[in-house]
From TrEMBL:
<keyword id="KW-0804">Transcription</keyword>
<keyword id="KW-0539">Nucleus</keyword>
<feature type="compositionally biased region" description="Polar residues">
    <location>
        <begin position="424"/>
        <end position="445"/>
    </location>
</feature>
<keyword id="KW-0238">DNA-binding</keyword>
<dbReference type="Pfam" id="PF00249">
    <property type="entry name" value="Myb_DNA-binding"/>
</dbReference>
<dbReference type="GO" id="GO:0045893">
    <property type="term" value="P:positive regulation of DNA-templated transcription"/>
</dbReference>
<dbReference type="GO" id="GO:0003700">
    <property type="term" value="F:DNA-binding transcription factor activity"/>
</dbReference>
<dbReference type="InterPro" id="IPR009057">
    <property type="entry name" value="Homeodomain-like_sf"/>
</dbReference>
<keyword id="KW-0010">Activator</keyword>
<feature type="domain" description="HTH myb-type">
    <location>
        <begin position="34"/>
        <end position="86"/>
    </location>
</feature>
<feature type="compositionally biased region" description="Low complexity">
    <location>
        <begin position="381"/>
        <end position="396"/>
    </location>
</feature>
<dbReference type="GO" id="GO:0080092">
    <property type="term" value="P:regulation of pollen tube growth"/>
</dbReference>
<feature type="domain" description="HTH myb-type">
    <location>
        <begin position="87"/>
        <end position="141"/>
    </location>
</feature>
<dbReference type="GO" id="GO:0003677">
    <property type="term" value="F:DNA binding"/>
</dbReference>
<dbReference type="GO" id="GO:0005634">
    <property type="term" value="C:nucleus"/>
</dbReference>
<dbReference type="GO" id="GO:0090406">
    <property type="term" value="C:pollen tube"/>
</dbReference>
<keyword id="KW-0805">Transcription regulation</keyword>
DNA sequence: AAGTCAATCAACCGCATTCAA
DNA sequence: TTTGAATGCGGTTGATTGACT
């Protein structure tokens, strides 16, 4: 596309481009010194003026351009034009395959840090990269393809682990793994594994950086199905704060979940940010799952537009969930799921410590990712199950405060979560999407490999455009369901009286949240161990999911 | 050939950060 | 320390183009 339009123009002012109102911040209240600033495409003459100005004065001080050059453009526009089109050494044309690969890798590590990514691509601009990426996302989403090729995930993972191993979580020497301010040391996960039983509670974890998300093992392409709605991160913070301010602020004291009404569910649904890559009718199913009525504005508010609902569209940007360090500390806010289920275990198996509840309750800054999902599930469900014994000392610390009012949440969840097929999307794949994939087609539901296994050569790379479909899952002859001890952490049952109950609570809540289909695929492993009557969730098909509705049957 | 739709790209917009007065 | 301007960044929008029907 030509960077300029109307080459015949003199580049100064044209009637049709200057008579509209100007209202952005670079217009100095609509004009600069009474001069209406021009907007719209640049002309070659304007380019020439700008180039000449920069030659004389150098870059910067863009607001002075208009004053000194007679160019009726605001400083921001000048800067953008220069940076994106006029500065020397800009590389034009399509991205090379190498560049594309690098973009993918960088995005897997950085998220939507276009400027930083551009720094790794000489001659390319952040705008170019951003446009490319957005186009690519749309394309892949439309095709139902995973966002990240498996090899990218693996590479990221390996690099991360190398970084962790050799640098103890410090930044590796390779800038590809350069961390932003939001990245937590990889050692945290190591510590989680090592101290899984010792950890009292995971909320001590700071925000899991999206940056390291893939690198930390959950980089499965399928993972993008859990991508939260993409918002400007500051907006997210603000909005989520506002979103839950009614809860967060009150939760400390009263946890007034009487507010947890229908719109609350909508909000929680938003916070989960669930989307379904190939779900033919995600709106409906999401709605069913989360109690969002079809047609509700909530989904669109949650950045799921009807037109793009299938995939959450461009909003599905995984690693960019990066919050300032100042925002870290509440595990429930973790923007990313833990890389492996064993880390999920660590996240969900331990009861919250006293004093953490306020930040954990309903996870003010929900990631929409699995850990948050699980956490909220646990929180909600715990409320129900503990409500009658909130004073019981057997309850895990923190549960007490959750109890009574959260019960309302659960009730609401049940009200909304009971439709026979809340998600219409295999919950097996739900979990699969949150776990590293063995590209050989083996299911993620297979016994969860260690991070080392995933990182290692055991994992065969798939073609970049590998499609993760239900067929792939079906190829897996058996879904060796990681049972409760694997999926949810053995310590659930190992920690004494409170934990087996929590275990059931947790899984029950997951069932409530995720819907019915999970059971169907697990049924092949432990068939017929339960019937719907066993489940208090009515039509909940989780009855077929061992370790969920039949949790008590797990030894 | 005309109309429609999707892809692409440039530019805009709003917000956050930085920095100097 | 405060304030406001300058700058940077990321998300979004709208125009253009090309493919398809």
């Amino acid at each position: 596309m030509s960077p300029t339009t109307n080459e015949s123009e003199d580049g100064m002012l044209s009637e049709d481009q200057t008579d509209f109102p100007l209202n952005d911040e670079c217009n100095f209240g609509g004009s600069a010194g009474g001069v209406v600033l021009k907007k719209g495409p640049w002309t070659s003459a304007e380019d020439a003026i700008l180039i000449d100005y920069v030659k004389k004065h150098g870059e910067g001080n863009w607001n002075a351009v208009q004053k000194h050059s007679g160019l009726f453009r605001c400083g921001k526009s000048c800067r953008l034009r220069w940076a994106n089109h006029l500065r020397p050494n800009l590389k034009k044309g399509a991205f090379t395959p190498e560049e594309e690969q690098l973009i993918i890798e960088l995005h897997a590590k950085m998220g939507n840090k276009w400027a930083r990514m551009a720094a790794h691509l000489p001659g390319r601009t952040d705008n170019e990269i951003k446009n490319y990426w957005n186009t690519r996302i749309k394309r892949r989403q439309r095709a139902g393809l995973p966002l990240y090729p498996p090899e990218v995930c693996l590479k990221a993972l390996q690099e991360s682990q190398n970084s962790s191993a050799f640098h103890g979580g410090d930044k590796g020497p390779h800038d590809l793994l350069q961390t932003n301010n939001f990245e937590i040391p990889d050692v945290i996960f190591d510590g989680l594994k090592a101290n899984q039983n010792a950890l009292s509670y995971v909320p001590e974890l700071p925000d899991i950086p999206s940056t390291g998300m893939l690198a930390k093992g959950l980089g499965s392409s399928q993972y993008f199905s859990f991508m939260p709605p993409l918002m400007h991160r500051q907006k997210r913070l603000r909005e989520s704060t506002a979103l839950f301010s009614g809860y967060g602020g009150s939760i400390k004291n009263d946890c007034p979940f009487d507010q947890f009404q229908d719109d609350t569910l909508n909000k929680v649904a938003q916070s989960f940010g669930l989307s379904f890559p190939v779900d033919p009718d995600p709106i409906t199913k999401n709605s069913q799952c989360f109690g969002v009525l079809p047609g509700s504005h909530t989904l669109s508010n949650g950045n799921y537009s009807a037109s793009e609902s299938t995939l959450g569209a461009v909003k599905l940007e995984l690693p960019s969930l990066q919050y300032p360090e100042s925002e870290l500390g509440s595990w429930g806010t973790s923007p990313s799921p833990p890389p492996l289920l064993e880390n999920v275990d660590a996240f969900i198996q331990s009861p919250p410590p006293i004093g953490r509840l306020e930040s954990d309750c309903l996870s003010p800054r929900n990631s929409g990712l699995l850990d948050a999902l699980l956490h909220e599930a646990k929180t909600i469900s715990s409320a129900k199950n503990h409500s009658s014994e909130k004073s019981s000392s057997s309850s895990a610390p923190g549960d007490i405060a959750e109890s009574s009012t959260l019960n309302i949440c659960k009730t609401e969840w049940e009200n909304y979560g009971d439709p026979p097929s809340p998600m219409g999307h295999s919950s097996t794949s739900r979990f699969s999407e949150c776990t590293p994939i063995s590209a050989s087609g083996s299911s993620l539901d297979e016994p969860q490999p260690s991070a080392e296994t995933i990182a290692g050569s055991n994992v065969k790379s798939e073609p970049i455009e590998h499609v993760w479909t239900s067929e792939v899952q079906k190829e897996t002859p058996q879904l060796e369901y990681p049972c409760s001890d694997t999926l949810f952490g053995s310590s659930w049952l190992d920690h004494g009286s409170g934990f087996d109950k929590d275990h059931a609570i947790m899984t029950d809540a997951i069932a409530t949240l995720l819907g019915e289909d999970l059971g169907s695929e697990y049924k092949t492993i432990t068939p017929g161990t339960s019937s719907s009557q066993e489940c208090g969730l009515g039509s909940c098909a989780w009855n077929n999911m061992p370790g969920v509705c039949q949790m008590s049957e797990i030894p």
